[in-house]
Amino acid sequence: MTATETNPAVPAWFAEALDTRPTHGTLVVDDAEIAYRVWDRREGDGDPRGIVLVHGGAAHAGWWDHIGPQLARTHRVVAFDLSGHGDSEWREGYTYDRWADELVAVAAAVGIVDDLVVVGHSMGGIVAMRAAVRHPEVVTDVVIVDSELFDAADIARMMEHGAPTDTMIPREPRRYATRDEALARYRLLPEQETLPYIRDHVAAGSVTRDEKGWRWKFDRSFPTLLTDPTPVPPPTCTLAIVRAEHGVMDPSRAQALHDSRSDGTATLVTLAGAGHHVMLDRPLELLAELRDVLGDRQE
């Protein structure tokens, strides 16, 4: 039974996307098992570029389940769980460099070793840019979607006022007696209006059960070591900046990042009416922008 048959409010395009099942896999990167999912290209030879989709903080690869299949008409598309998130293993500490290495390792595991397009939402956009800096021979195009941008002065101010530590954010997850109880407590950060059928899907993929009960699928300590300024991709990498009108990306900083690429390798668009979690409230508008960046013309 399809999603539209169980819930008539679900539009056909979304149900069809979820019915396009990815292939799931895992690989070990620096002693942590990383989970990923792949949608293979469905139409002819298509575009040789592969795409990796990177979720934001406290999220998981399933946030892209309705986006990946759409892009997979003409591209091989991969989404993965950053370590400390989703079905990937936790680490003792997290850095953007290590997440960037996970990204490139996942791409290589599915046969994408160059000409890689990376699309990152929120914190995932920072991971995408870091991957372009660390692996310029692999990453040729980056799209950041409403990523909060920090410079060295921002980091210094945060450290001065006390950066998050594992004593402030206990690592032990909060647990619930039932799955329904956990899902009833699901919240976005920042909170915003979303399309309920998409929110329900990502929420369902956000909980798991262990021997102590139901818990969220992320390590609450992951922000404690993330104190690096925003990296800037090298000139060899194109940069597309997608800002949500009501999101967290400061418009002046987005413009400054765009203007810093005087060679014309950067683009900047604002999605009207969108909140920070763009794929949950403006998914078709986001898809249109991604297709434009990719040079695709899909109906």
State the order of secondary-structure elements, H for helix, E for strand.
HHEEEHEHEHEHEHHEEEHEHH
Instruction: Note the main sheet.
Output: 8 strands, mixed
**Sequence of strands across the biggest β-sheet:** 1-2-4-3-5-6-10-11
Measured between the Cα atoms of the first and last residue, the distance is 26 Å
Can you say what the CATH homologous superfamily is? Answer: Alpha/Beta hydrolase fold, catalytic domain
Which residue ranges are poorly predicted, with pLDDT under 50 across at least 5 consecutive positions? Answer: none
Q: Averaged pLDDT, please? A: 91
Overall geometric form:
globular
Cα-based radius of gyration, to the nearest Å: 18 Å
Find the CATH topology. Rossmann fold
Number of helical elements: 11
Structural class: alpha/beta
**Number of separate domains:** 1
Estimated share of beta-strand residues: 15-25%
CATH top-level class: Alpha Beta
Helix content: 25-40%
CATH architecture level-2 label: 3-Layer(aba) Sandwich
Strand runs, count: 11
Domain AB hydrolase-1: 51-289
Protein name: Alpha/beta hydrolase
Keywords: Hydrolase
GO molecular function, one term: hydrolase activity
